[in-house]
Amino acid sequence: MNSLTRFLLFLDPWLIAPFRWPEASMAGYLLGVAILGLQCVLIGDFSATLVAFINRRYLGTIAEKMERNRKLSETALMMGDKASYRAVNRQALDAFGHSFSLGAAIFCVSIWPLPFALAWLHLRFNEAPLELPLALPLLGRSVHYFPSFLLIYIAVRVCYGMLMGRFRWYTGLKRRVLSQPGTTPDR
What is residue 57's DSSP assignment? Predict the structure, then answer.
């Protein structure tokens, strides 16, 4: 038994509890997977916010560089100076590439709990696919833990994003955490 399996078995009583709350097995499975997905989203959101907070100075530098180069390229374009426009635009694209890569890295941080959740689901439900009451196209009458978890996780993540975006305290907290040191966040 490797150390990951020991860790997952240590967490097993807490992770399996929501699966046993309803009497019906299908309802328990769906509720348990939704709660597991929500736990992954919460941990991932906290982790991504923490990483963005740690890198906020660098994120601010890249954003300033993109904005400065955008303004310079617009000025060069209005003046008809194509050589300056191309040079500044190349720098703006470089800054955008850095920003995009850092955004992708922060997104990857937000999904780090997924492999652990999938490993636990594999331990628990690998031999027991969910039996559906009717046959679905491309799935048939049963579905394994991976596609069911993935679909429910995406739904939970979309709902979480839509719901949390409506709370001012959450959006204000995110803005304060990601604001540059020594500046006041925009309202």
Answer: H
Rounded to whole angstroms, how far apart are CA atoms 107 and 44? 9
With residue 136 as reference, give the H or E element that holds it.
strand 130-136
- Under a CB-based contact definition with an 8 Å cutoff, are residues 132 and 171 in contact? no
Please give the sequence-ordered ranges of beta strands (E in DSSP) within 41-111, or none if there are none: none
Radius of gyration from C-alpha coordinates of the chain: 23
Number of residues that this document lists for the chain: 187
Contacts of 186 (CB under 8 A, 6+ apart): 175
Q: What is the model's pTM? A: 0.83
What are the angstrom distances between the C-alpha of 61 and each of 78, 99, 137?
Answer: 26, 10, 49
Q: What is the pLDDT along the chain (187 residues), one digit of tens a residue?
A: 688 899 999 999 999 999 999 998 889 999 999 999 999 999 999 999 999 999 888 888 888 888 898 888 888 888 888 888 888 888 888 888 998 999 999 999 999 999 999 999 999 998 888 877 778 777 778 888 898 899 999 999 999 999 999 999 999 988 888 776 666 555 5
